[in-house]
Structures are given as C-alpha cells and as structure tokens.
C-alpha cells in the first residue's frame, strides 16, 4: 500500500488520576486510502487510541507520525493546521452535534476555521452540496439536529467530518446506536465517500460483521494492547489469538452457531505496571504456566499476520 | 471454556394455556389532529414457557406495546383492547393489584441496566428488597435467595458483589444483576426489552444463553424485544414483526427465518451479516426512513420503502390475514416461496 499515511509507534496513554494505562505500547499503521478496522470490547482502549491519534487526549509516550511529521512534537498552535487532516465521526450522532446550532452552521464551522479565506456564499454552496451528497435535502441546513432521526444525524456527522476533505477519517462505532436496517445505509455512505475522496479510515466497532465488510486490515485490541492484526479476510477466516476467536464466535447469526462462552467477566482496566504475563490469560481456555510469566510480543504468523500469543502455533 | 449451543430443542407447546393473551391493543397519545397512534390493534399470545420475539425498528411501537401491557404508560396515553394474564384482565386493574402482579408474576429487563438499578443502593439491598416486598421473606432468607440467584447468573464473588453499588459493576454484570432481580420471584412471564443492545457481543452471547437457561430451568415465558433478528435465532418460538405500530407478520421462528413473507421481514433478515457468505460490495439495508407517526395512515405504511410495492399498496392498507396454518401476514404482494 506504499508509504504509510499514519504510523503510530509504541504509543502509551495513561490516565494518571487512576494510574491506568489505557493504551499500552501500540504500533499501528494506516496507508493512504486504506481502511483499518479496530476491534475489541468496551474498555479495551480502542476509543482512547483513536482519540490519542486525533490528539484529543494526552499521550504518555510514543510517536504519531502523520504524513512524515511527528504530531507529538508539535506545539498546540503548530498542531492546529494538522487537525483538518484528521476528522472524527462519533457513536452518538445527536450528542456530537451542538443542539443550538442549525445543521448549516454546524457544517460551516469547520470551513470557517480551516478555510477562513472562503467567501460566505461559496461556503453555503459547499454545505448544500455536502448535504445532498450524504442524502439529505439542502433545506436541512436551516433545521436543528433534534429534528432528525439517528440515521440522519449520523449523515450530518459524516458531512461535517468530510466537508474539509480530511486525509484520515476516524469512525468510532459510527453505526452501533442505529437500527440494523439503517446501519447498512450509513456504512455504504462512508464507503462511497471514501472512494470519492481517497481518504484513509480507521473504523472502530464491536460488530465484527460490519468491520469485516469495510476493512482492508484489522487490529484486535485487548486491555490496551494489540493482540493480533492481519489482512481482513485472513484475520476472520484464520484467527490465531483465542481472544479474536471468542470475538468472532460471539457474533449472533442465523442459523445460530455454537458459541464459546467466556467464563470470566471484564475487569476494570489494569493499573500501570500492574499486569504481568498475558492480559487475556484469566479468560483464556488455552492458558498455561508460561503465559503468566511475560506478556507475549507480536510475532509473525503468516504474511502480514501478527499475533501476540505464546500458544498461537499449537492451538 | 464451556461449549454450549444457542440452539436448544424447544417444546412447541401450542396447546399450553396462554400466559399472556392480548387482543386488539391500541395505544394513542394526544388528541384531535395531533393524535399519535403508537400501537394499532395488536393481538398476541404467549403460552406458558414459550418465548415470543418481537422485532422492529425504533418507532415501530414494540416498546410502547409492552409498556402498555405492563400498565406503565403515562396518564396521557389511551390504551384500548384487552390484556389478559393467566385469564385475568389487566387493563383497568387497580394500581395495588397491578403492583402485586408486576415483580412477582411478571418482570421486566430493560436495555440500560444503569438507569433501571437505583444508583445509591447496594446491589444486595435492591435484591433483598424485592423478596421482602413481594415474597414476604425475612431478611436472612431473602439474603440467602439473592446470593443463590447471583450465583445462578454466574456472578463471581457474589457475597462481595452484594455490598457493591451499580456503578462499580461492568455493563454486562449489571445486566446479569437485572436478570437475577427479574427472576427472583420465579415470574411466569419475563419481558426483556433490548436486553443486550448496550453490551459487547461477547457479553451479549452470555446474556442470551443465560436467558435461555433460565427459561429452560424455571419454565418462564418470555417476550424478547429487539431490532436485531439474529438475537432471536435459537431463542424465540414465535416471532412478531412490527412496523409503524402494527404487526406485519407473525409466524413460528423457523418458518420466518427460512422464508419471510413480508418484504419488510425479508429486508430486516437480509441486514444480518451472514458469516458464511463472501464479502459483498454493498451492505444490505432498507432504504428510506420509518414513517412519521404524526402523518395520517394511507395504504401500507411500508409501501414507500418497499421494492415490491404497486399502486394498490399506497391506496389500501393490507389487513393481517392468515397465510397458512400458522402464519399471518399483512401484505398485498407477499413473497411467494412456493
């Protein structure tokens, strides 16, 4: 896929007050135009990782190299022009729009900030064009977010993120709060927009069926660490990590399939340095004594397929 | 790891006496020109120990239907029709009698366990309160039973959890506490409204299995309300598909999954990603939006989104009628699988 657009190296995010390491030594790369899926349960650190990449949460250590520039070395004022290249779409479309701003104003705002030279009539034209592009009427500009359904609000969220043509779009569970019947519409819209603008995408989700549909490559994150990553079909057809297998097995299907039930429950995120050995071992059916000794590092399992499990070769 | 199957053979106890029988239930809000009909002439039947799945999008009236059945709608709502629980009429029942029924005979599990648990009371207090109120148990017996139930829903260190507050538990654990609470008094009917929507798929699978085993072991009848067809597979005996306040298809689950008759049921089923299928270029969805409930009803409510619609559909509303021995569908041009 050529030179990566984004290269994250050894990224750590800590929440000091709770002494929690939410993201732990993560390496991740995204090529231009590529869609990278990021999957894991609640509390696995996937949203925190995304927010760290967008420079919305403080980073404890590591590098975020975007278009050759380490974003962590930039001062807030130097960072500002970079922000237009990384945009986010959130899970709750209504909560992420200002309820007191018309949709038109909400869409004009990024243009005012990042394209201050743009004349107001051009700006309004760009907004109308964008609204029609995401499947809404141009008249929607004069209405308020609460007048729209969840699916329509998510269309507005996508329009707002795409209007300044970012190089990287981060979608954090963009369809999880929508009806199953509407999810497909929004995912198809995202894919169409991506095809038109060649933007790269990080797609976070816990519905693996949808992540499989949109992604070129997929990273699996567990308690702040990447435990497996591979090209999409390779990961879903030949998952190596027991956690990935459990995630895939838990997808509800018709006809129903046998489900591997994890006996343990999700504990709160681990404290810094408090974890020894593989973080998944207390839920893992294949855990053996060596798993408690040291956290396994990511190792190649096949072409482009990396897995952090001591027993990946034998299970 | 234990391997369990979500497919469990179910006795299709068609002849069992109905636990819940609803006839032509309608719910309206507001009046005059601003009247909104949220539920329109819905009839359903849940036999003892049976599981009925109710599927539909947001705004289809599935939640309002069961809120009305439980008598939990605000005063401004007007409910008509008949709701009989074990033969006794529930509509118009006195609040005292209703309260006796709810909690002991009928219980509910809601989507968001955080808002349905009292935030400032310990888990143990909330559980024992139910038993002391509804089953007239003394504190020690109630505590014993609560502990048993927490272990029953696979909550680890149950004794310790009794002293914790809801916010100290994870989402999945809170939902299991809710299920434990709902099952404390061995209810005859459990109503679960999107019980797993807020949960991870791994936890969702556990909660579904838990509901299934509760049903098998305690013989509880269930109504499972969801927007996701896939959750009903292996759990529901019968399924009602709701659209814009009406039942558009009613069938036994196996028939419906095999061969949906209503274009809306077929569309919803197509939205479930099939693991066995290769990746398609487009994700299936149903075009358009559900209708605005304030708009007057003309013809079939699904017609504007329907790929099979013809001129008749926008003029005349199709009645729910018998299609074959066990299936009903409200469509002028249903899918023909023959």
What would you say this structure looks like, in words?
The complex is a heterodimer of chains A (315) and B (338). Chain A is α/β, with parallel strands linked by helices and 315 residues long. Chain A has two domains: 4-85 and 166-276, Rossmann fold (3-Layer(aba) Sandwich), CATH 3.40.50.300; 101-165. Chain A has helices at residues 46-53, 76-83, 103-114, 120-133, 150-162, 180-197, 208-214, 232-237, 242-249, and strands at residues 4-15, 20-31, 35-39, 61-66, 69-70, 86-89, 168-172, 200-205, 217-222, 225-231, 258-261, 299-302, 305-307. Chain A is globular, with a radius of gyration of 20 Å. Chain B has two domains: 18-236, 3-Layer(aba) Sandwich (Rossmann fold); 248-270 and 280-329, no CATH class. Chain B contains ten helices and 13 strands. Chain B has helices at residues 62-69, 95-101, 113-116, 123-134, 139-152, 158-161, 171-183, 201-218, 253-258, 263-270; strands spanning 2-5, 18-29, 36-47, 51-55, 78-85, 88-89, 106-109, 189-193, 221-226, 238-243, 246-252, 321-324, 327-329. In chain B, strand 8, helix 8 and strand 9 (221-226) form a beta-alpha-beta unit. In chain B, helix 7 packs parallel to helix 8. The chains are: A alpha/beta (315), B alpha/beta (338). Chains A and B meet through helix 5, helix 6, helix 7, helix 9 and strand 11 of A and strand 1, helix 7, helix 8 and helix 10 of B. Strand 11 (258-261) of chain A pairs antiparallel with strand 1 of chain B, so a sheet runs across the interface.
What's the short version?
With 315 residues, chain A is an alpha/beta fold.
Keywords:
heterodimer, A: 315 residues, alpha/beta, Rossmann fold, 2 domains, eight-stranded mixed beta sheet, 9 helices, 13 strands, 24% strand, globular, B: 338 residues, four-stranded antiparallel beta sheet, 10 helices, disordered N terminus
- Biggest sheet features of chain A: 8 strands, mixed
The biggest chain-chain interface is: A-B, 47 and 51 residues
Assign the CATH topology of the largest domain in chain A. Answer: Rossmann fold
User: What class would the helix/strand composition of chain B place it in?
Assistant: alpha/beta
Q: What is the CATH topology classification name of the largest domain in chain B?
A: Rossmann fold
What fraction strand of chain A? 15-25%
Q: In CATH terms, what is the architecture of the largest domain in chain A?
A: 3-Layer(aba) Sandwich
- Shape descriptor of chain A reads globular
Spatial extent as radius of gyration of chain B: 21 Å
Uncertain stretches of 5 or more adjacent residues of chain A: 260-270
If strands are numbered along the chain, what order do they take across the biggest sheet of chain B? 7-8-9-4-10-11-13-12
Derived from helix and strand composition plus strand pairing, the structural class of chain A reads alpha/beta
Q: Say what oligomer this is.
A: heterodimer
Q: Under the CATH scheme, which class of the largest domain in chain A? A: Alpha Beta
How many strand segments of chain B? 13
């Amino acid at each position: 896929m050529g030179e990566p657009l984004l290269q994250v190296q050894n990224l750590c995010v800590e929440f000091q007050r709770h002494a929690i390491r939410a993201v732990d030594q993560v390496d991740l790369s995204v090529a231009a135009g590529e869609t990278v899926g990021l999957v894991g349960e609640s509390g696995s650190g996937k949203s925190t990782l995304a927010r760290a990449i967008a420079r919305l949460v403080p980073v404890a250590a590591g590098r975020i190299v975007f278009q050759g520039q380490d974003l962590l070395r930039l001062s807030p004022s130097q960072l500002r022009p970079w922000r237009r290249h990384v945009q986010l779409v959130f899970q709750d479309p209504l909560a992420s729009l200002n309820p007191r701003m018309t949709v038109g104003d909400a869409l004009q705002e990024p243009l005012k900030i990042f394209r201050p030279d743009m004349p107001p009539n051009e700006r309004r034209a760009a907004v109308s064009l964008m609204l029609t592009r995401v499947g809404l009427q141009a008249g929607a500009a004069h209405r308020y977010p609460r007048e729209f359904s969840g699916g329509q609000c998510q269309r507005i969220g996508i329009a707002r993120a795409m209007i300044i043509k970012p190089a990287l779009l981060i979608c954090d569970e963009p369809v999880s709060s929508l009806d199953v019947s509407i999810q497909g519409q929004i995912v198809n819209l995202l894919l169409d927009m991506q095809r038109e603008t060649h933007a790269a995408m990080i797609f976070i989700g816990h519905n693996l069926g949808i992540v499989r549909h949109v992604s070129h490559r997929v990273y699996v994150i567990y308690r702040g660490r990447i435990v497996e990553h591979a090209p999409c079909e390779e990961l879903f057809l030949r998952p190596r990590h027991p956690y990935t297998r459990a995630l895939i097995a838990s997808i509800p299907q018709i006809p129903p399939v046998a489900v591997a039930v994890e006996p343990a429950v999700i504990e709160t995120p681990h404290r810094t340095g408090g974890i020894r050995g593989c973080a998944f071992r207390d839920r893992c059916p294949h855990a053996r004594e060596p798993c408690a000794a040291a956290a396994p590092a990511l190792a190649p399992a096949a072409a482009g397929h990396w897995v952090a499990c001591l027993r990946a070769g034998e299970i | 790891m234990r391997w369990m199957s979500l497919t469990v053979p179910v006795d299709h106890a068609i002849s069992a006496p109905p636990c819940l029988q609803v006839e032509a239930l309608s719910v309206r809000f507001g009046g005059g020109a601003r009247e909104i009909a949220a539920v329109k002439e819905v009839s359903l039947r849940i036999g003892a120990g049976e599981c009925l799945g109710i599927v539909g999008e947001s705004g289809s009236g599935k939640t309002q239907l069961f809120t009305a059945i439980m008598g939990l709608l605000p005063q401004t709502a007007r409910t008509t029709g008949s709701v009989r629980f074990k033969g006794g009429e529930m509509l118009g029942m006195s609040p005292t009698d209703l309260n006796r029924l709810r909690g002991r005979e009928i219980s509910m599990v809601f989507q968001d366990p955080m808002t349905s648990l009292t935030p400032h009371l310990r888990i143990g207090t909330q559980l024992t309160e139910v038993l002391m109120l509804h089953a007239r148990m003394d504190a020690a017996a109630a505590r014993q039973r609560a502990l048993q139930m927490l272990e029953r829903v696979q909550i680890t260190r149950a004794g310790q959890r009794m002293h914790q507050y809801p916010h100290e538990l994870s989402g999945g654990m809170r939902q299991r506490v809710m299920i434990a609470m709902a099952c404390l008094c061995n209810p005859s009917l459990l109503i679960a409204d999107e019980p797993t929507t807020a949960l991870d798929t791994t936890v969702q699978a556990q909660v579904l299995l838990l509901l299934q085993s509760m049903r098998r072991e305690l013989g509880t009848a269930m109504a499972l309300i969801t927007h996701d067809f896939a959750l009903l597979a292996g759990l529901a005996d019968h399924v009602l598909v709701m659209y814009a306040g009406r039942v558009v298809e009613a069938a036994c689950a196996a028939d419906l999954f095999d061969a949906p008759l209503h274009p809306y049921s077929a569309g919803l089923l197509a939205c479930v990603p099939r693991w066995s299928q290769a990746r398609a270029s487009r994700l299936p969805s149903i075009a358009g939006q559900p209708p605005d409930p304030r708009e007057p009803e003309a013809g079939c409510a699904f017609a504007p989104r329907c790929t099979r619609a013809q001129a008749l559909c926008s003029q005349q509303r199709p009645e729910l009628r018998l299609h074959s021995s066990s299936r009903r569908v409200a469509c002028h041009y249903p899918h023909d699988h023959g």
